[in-house]
Amino acid sequence: MVKSINPIRHKFTTLADGTDAVLLMHELVGETDGPTVGISASIHGNENTGTQAILELFRILKDTPLSGRIVLLPVANPSAFAVNQRFATHDKVDLNRQFPGSARGTYSQQLALAISDQFLRKIDIHIDLHSGTDRPTVDYVYIWNDEELSRAFGSTVLYRPVPDKQGTVFAGTSKAVTIEERGIPSVVVELGGGIVDQTPYIERTVNGVLNMLRVRGMIPGDVAPNPKQIVCNELAGIRPTQGAFSNRSAPPMAKSSGAANCWAAL
Length: 266
Known about the structure:
By secondary structure, the chain is an alpha/beta fold. It is built from 6 helices and 10 strands; from the N terminus they run E-E-E-H-E-H-H-E-E-H-E-H-E-H-E-E.
C-alpha cells in the first residue's frame, strides 16, 4: 500500500567491453511524510544473506502502510556478487574501504562514489546488512551513533567499538559518509553466513529491520521488546589447533547479558 515504487538505475562507468556499469535501487514512497531509510546489502559480494532479506522485505513493505521513503540497495557490489567473491573482479579491492570514492579512481572507487552520491547522501537513516560470507557465521550488531535503533534489531549481542582494543574498525567504510560526513543514524548488522541453512538468519533480519522501522514510526504495529543483550567492546580472534564436526543447522542466539569481550574462532 505504498504510494509508488520506483526503480532507480544509475550508470557510474563504462567497462572495457563497452557495457555500462550501473547501480540498481528501488524506492518505496509512502503515502505520508517521514524519514528516508536506506537499506543496503552485499557490499561484499559473498555476503548475500542480507540481499535475500531485502527481497523478502520488499514483498512485505510494498503492501504495508508507509510513512516516509525506503530506498533498497540489495546488491551494492554487483561484480563481486555475480561470482560470489568478496571483491569486485575488475580491481580486486575491498569496496568497503574506498568511501567516499573517487570519480577518477578504480572501478570500486567509482562505485563507492556512486553509492555515496546516489544513496548515502540522499537518506536519513542507513541500515547496512552484512553476513559471514560462505565460511564463518556471525551474529551481532554494531552500536555506532544510534543505540536505540541498534538494539531494536533484536540481536542478543551488540558491539560498541572502543579505541585501542581489537575489533573491526576500518577507514574508508560507508560510515565515512553516513557518520563522519553527514552524522545520520547508521546501523551495521552482521548476521548469517556459513555453510548452513540461511533461512533462520533471513527471517531474523526481516523481523529485525521491520522492528527498526516501527521504532521510527514508519510502519504500523507494536514495537517488539528487546531481549536480554550483551554489549561487547572488543572483537578478538581465537585460532584453534584442533577442530570438530557439528550437526547444528544454525547456531543459537547468545543468551548472555552485561558487558564483555567477544571472541570468535577463525
